[in-house]
Amino acid sequence: MTTSQETKDGADRPQADSAVYVYGIVPGDVEVEESAQGIGDPPAPVETVHEGDIAALVSVIAADRALGTPEDLQAHAKLLDGTAAVVPVLPLRFGAVMTDEDSVAEELLREHHDEFAQALKALEGQAEYVVKGRYDAEAFLTRLLSENKQARQLSDDIRNKPEDASRNSRIALGELIANAIESMRNADTKTVIDDLDGIASQVNPREPTHEWDAVHVALLAKVERQAELEEVVGRLSENAGGRMKLRLLGPLAAYDFVVTARAQG
To answer: According to the model, what pLDDT value does residue 16 have?
Structure first.
């Protein structure tokens, strides 16, 4: 994406058998690069629909086209995340389809113009990043057994008895491990958030999606400070000593930090 004082709306208006897919909202001076691709096979060209000093990123799709393939989801995210690296963007939820460009301008942009314009101003220069990590199960269990007497006793009981006879010990050890993971996850998440203080303007801890998830934190930060984020995440990962590995994802569209209206055709 680039910016320009004069941009043109898409010249190809959708026909009756077409609809308009809406990706997100951007400042009105954004100009879509020719290489930008939307959903579809082949990928549809991306255009802009303007209203005042804001615009919507859109592409034309068949009115009866079913949405939801992995390729559709990837194209939606790729366009928004690529845009967020350059200009502020308010992402719409996947699957936002409207009747035509006039409905995008009137029902979406005009009705929410001031709200969108204010949100875009607040996002200027910023993007979302995600710090994500997962515990190494073997390293975690080795450390737990070396430090926790009860865990060692339960493990020995399981090892020395038939499966049926050690059922209670298996259940108890499973609960102990789950509690240990949760406790360590909370501590590691707090450490990450504390270390990001001063770099991130907002932080949003996410719920774990896997039993061995360690840290999963979304944050809003200046794109120009990405190198600082990478340094912090790299240091924290190194300090974990193999217990977990952290990675930084981004820049991304600010999915966790903005709420936009849902487009309806």
So the answer is: 63
